[in-house]
Amino acid sequence: MDHNEASGSSTATQGYGTDPNLVTPDTPWPRTLSERQRKLIVALGDIILPGTDEYPAPSAVGIADFFDDWVSAPYRTQQKDATVITTGLAMVDEASHQQFGIGFAELDGSRRRMIVDQIASTTATDRSFFVRFRSLLLSGYFTTDIGFKAIGYVGNVPLVEFPGVPPEVQRIIDDELRKLGL
């Protein structure tokens, strides 16, 4: 046994790396969205999920950063989403230019809503962009501290006492275990 093995370290194997820094996260890949695309994400996101007096709009919680990180990631799912999102953003901006002579981000709220309503209710390609954009928007928003508060999620908190599984939930678990023969 060499010194590295005896001390618990190994220069031969690196493992998967360290745990992510969730306090001040850092993305290990370059961001790929342009400033124009980020502005479109903000404008579109705020129409789909407008802020309230209690909970701000997605633009206020950094939704463009979430999208930029997501579509810039070098993974198959995110790369597929990058194509859908960037193509869809271009389509939204083009529809705005065709109808109103200016880009989507420069439109007022009522005209933005007109474009969104048209996209959400039209062809399968346009609709698939809208559905995926909305899904990512909600995922990004409701995993922020503000989003957690909005849905009442308190996270992993210590309990003085564990109340146990509610009887109606235990019945469901028992039924499923029986079906599996366990």
Automatic annotation (TrEMBL):
Stretch list, region Disordered: 1-30
Keyword Oxidoreductase: yes
Molecular function terms from GO: oxidoreductase activity
Keyword presence, Manganese: no
Membrane-crossing residue ranges in chain numbering: none
Taxonomy, superkingdom: Bacteria
Record field: compositional bias (Polar residues): 1-16
InterPro entries tied to this protein: Gluconate_2DH_su3
EC number annotated for this UniProt entry: 1.-.-.-
A Pfam family this chain is assigned to: Gluconate_2-dh3
Keyword vocabulary terms for this entry: Oxidoreductase
Protein name: Gluconate 2-dehydrogenase subunit 3 family protein
Protein species of origin: Streptomyces cathayae
